[in-house]
Amino acid sequence: MTQRTRTAGLIRRVVTTTAAVAATALVAGCEPTASGPAAVPATSAEPTPKQALLAAVPDGTEGTFRFSGKSSTGDVSGLVDPTAKGMELSIANKDAELGFTMRMSFRIVADDLWMKVRFTGADGLTGLPKLPDRWLRLDRAKLTDAESAPVWEGVDVGNTGPLIEAATRVEEQGAGKYTGTIDLTSGEAAKALEAEEMTALGDAAKAVPFTAEVGADGNLSRLTLQVPAAGKRKAYPYLVEYRDYGTAPKVDAPTGSAAQDAPKVAYELLAG
């Protein structure tokens, strides 16, 4: 995720940070693929722990589900609906200096995109944009920064498949429990962290400890990387959670009075 510096405008820092977080679709910069993780080759032998863990990564057959994620620069949560090629995600950022919180939500259905922005704790502040409390439909052709808003790129929004693929060691620690290490310099996993953080980690990036959990239904429920301290950043957990497989709400296109075309100020918020 990208943390941009403050520019002109009262809430620019919060807005650009939130938009950058949303652009990654979850907590990292890995690029998911619509097909999901690489298929585990068919074999008559017992699958290895790594193969078993890869097989638990969502591929679209599980139905709708909820997700949440955490990294060094923010938290995100939402829904995935494989049938609709739909996703809803929300990020809340609090401005420590001014005391208000902005929650930015996006909804995607195939190629269509909406966003909603709400402010709390902003009483007495002036200069905040006035936005309708509705889903605002965005025309992607009007976005000056194409990466400022998310797109549908597959169900594994937390990019757990590429991370597990890069695991150099995976051990099963009882039913549904796994531990191991991941080489964050390998393949798509190399995009999980920002370049400066990868540089600061040095050789430590080649063996980042992780834990994972698979539910009784055989689906991945949690993946946690324990990213060590690097440069000025303290150690932190990089977390992806999937839950409520098959029971989470569908992601539908907002209609009627719940939606409208986005006004100009909405595009200005995403301009960075």
Keyword list:
alpha+beta, 272 residues, 5 helices, disordered N terminus, twelve-stranded mixed β-sheet, 31% strand, globular
Question: How large is the count of helical segments?
Answer: 5
| Helix/strand order | HHEEEEEEHEEHEEEEH
**Would you count the extended β strands for me?**
12
- The Cα radius of gyration reads 19 Å
Low-confidence blocks of residues: 1-17, 19-29
What structural class should be given to the helix and strand makeup?
alpha+beta
> In which order are the strands of the major sheet placed?
7-8-9-10-11-1-2-3-4-5-6-12
Whole-number mean pLDDT:
82
Rough shape? globular
Q: What is the distance, rounded to the nearest whole angstrom, between the alpha carbons of the first and last residues?
A: 14 Å
Major β-sheet, in short?
12 strands, mixed
- The helical percent reads 10-25%
Fraction in beta strands: 25-35%
